[in-house]
Amino acid sequence: MLEKGWIGGGNTGRNTTIVRSNYLFDESAHLYEKSLQLFEQLSQELNYNVMMSQRGVMNLAHNLHDVRESKRRVFANKLNGVDAEWLEPEEVKAFCPIIDISPDARYPVMGATLQKRAGVARHDAVAWGFARGADARGVDIIQNCEVTGLRIDNGRIVGVETTKGFIGAKKVGSVAAGHTSVICGMAGFRVPLTSHPLQALVSEPIKPIHPCVVMSNAVHVYVSQSDKGELVIGAGIDAYNSYAQRGSFHIIEGQMGALRELFPIFSRLRMMRSWGGIVDTTPDASCIMSKTPVENFFINCGWGTGGFKATPGSGWAFAYTIAKGEPHPLNAAFTLDRFTTGALVDEHGAAGVAH
Amino acid sequence: MLLIDCPYCGERPEIEFSYGGEAHIARPENPGALSDKEWADFLFMRGNQKGAFRERWIHTQGCRRWFNVLRDTTSHEIYAVYKIGAPKPPAPGEKPVAAKKPAAKKPAALKKGAGK
């Protein structure tokens, strides 16, 4: 396991820690639900407290289209065995008392989907729990070791060039998030990815007041409260391509406006830190876990704005894919080929982050 | 926030603009003749360069015209802004030899313009 920087120093350390599985289509729902089930056991499995807190995630609806789309998603989730329910505005208020549901709001809350088993997990703990678990199972984790080239012989991968020298390998899997295009460029093929900054920020710590995770696609903000008391806030990506791990200020201004709209109580709250991670977005907002034109070279990418929730399921299915040389039924739909065949898995609605 | 020098209106803040992704991707002359793979290449596959990157912007809140920008995706520095159809300004460190490449692609772009 080669890491350019240090464990947890990339997007893992920069995400907003939300874990849920309420995706619309069968393929996504199955994969994310597998992941959520693994998350539920993760602290036991790793013997490391990942602070998984199933406090519930609400996705708000602010107009009739939102209401119809959300209810459709609730029904689809139920059919896939994913827990989901529809809440009327008063029930939203009961579940999260600080939210403003007044009907004269610019974008009134007309209801919400709720996944009670969803919630948050501590991102650092998840990263270090995985690292510790992998290490205990015999994985060599080499930090500060950047892959600078791929050695390919007759269309088959034979190893990687790194800043610490050449490493021979029969099979190579790339899980490079925002830098996947760069890695695939070394292998000589293009991928349908664009890399963008996704910004997030935290407020000053306050006493526990926000009991769940609230996401709103329409006014566009998502927010939860960490165990340290900070509000953890995110929204959409910056529109432009970037590898700079920072974005433009108006994106933050927009999400603060949305936060203020939904939670008037936070109007005087001060923000502490903001940051950006580089996310690899796909045209259909679904991941790519796939074989590639290079034999024995596999890619796991395109998680875009929502990879953290998928980490256990993603690793599980990708391990299978690498070991067997063929995708598991859970990730069979998420091939690179789907952009040629047209069998896209369009999850822009459930992805919850505008891009 | 980026300051973008619209070739028609001058320097304006980024919020006046919308992004159009990678530039110089010409719509195929005869889409029906393409294989699925070639169509997918046109539709979905992108360069996504780390470093100097040619991209399209539109001045949505201003003149509503499209133009090209040469920008560094690691520093966000804008090297050049140029109109659609104008010759590509070289990226920093780009050799003059590279300037030949756009010349080879030019006929396709010209044809497209002529079609208007």
Helix content of chain A: 25-40%
Q: Largest chain-chain contact?
A: A-B, 23 and 27 residues
Give me the side-by-side strand order of the main sheet of chain B. 3-4-5-6
Strand arrangement, major sheet of chain A: 3-4-2-11-12-13-10-14
Given as residue ranges, the uncertain stretches of chain A (5+ residues, pLDDT < 50) are: none
> Major sheet of chain B, described briefly?
4 strands, antiparallel
How far is the first residue's CA from the last residue's CA of chain B? 35 Å
Please tell me how large the radius of gyration of chain B is: 15 Å
CATH class of chain B: Alpha Beta
Instruction: Give the number of DSSP strands of chain B.
Output: 6
Number of continuous helical runs of chain A? 9
Roughly what is the average pLDDT of chain B, rounded to an integer? Answer: 86
Explain what the structure shows.
The complex is a heterodimer of chains A (355) and B (116). With 355 residues, chain A is an alpha+beta fold. Chain A is built from nine helices and 16 strands. In chain A, the strands form four sheets. An eight-stranded mixed beta sheet of chain A has the order 3-4-2-11-12-13-10-14. A three-stranded antiparallel beta sheet of chain A has the order 6-7-8. In chain A, helix 1 packs across helix 7. Chain A starts with 17 loop residues before the first strand and ends with a helix. The relative contact order of chain A is 0.18. The model of chain A has no long low-confidence stretch (mean pLDDT 96). In chain B, strands 3-4-5-6 form a four-stranded antiparallel beta sheet, with no helix packed on it. Chain B is globular and about 40 Å long. Chain B is of the alpha+beta class. Chain B starts with a strand and ends with a helix. Helix content of chain B is 21%, strand content 28%. Chain B contains two helices and six strands, in the order βββαβββα. The chains are: A alpha+beta (355), B alpha+beta (116). Chains A and B meet through helix 8 of A and strand 3 and helix 1 of B.
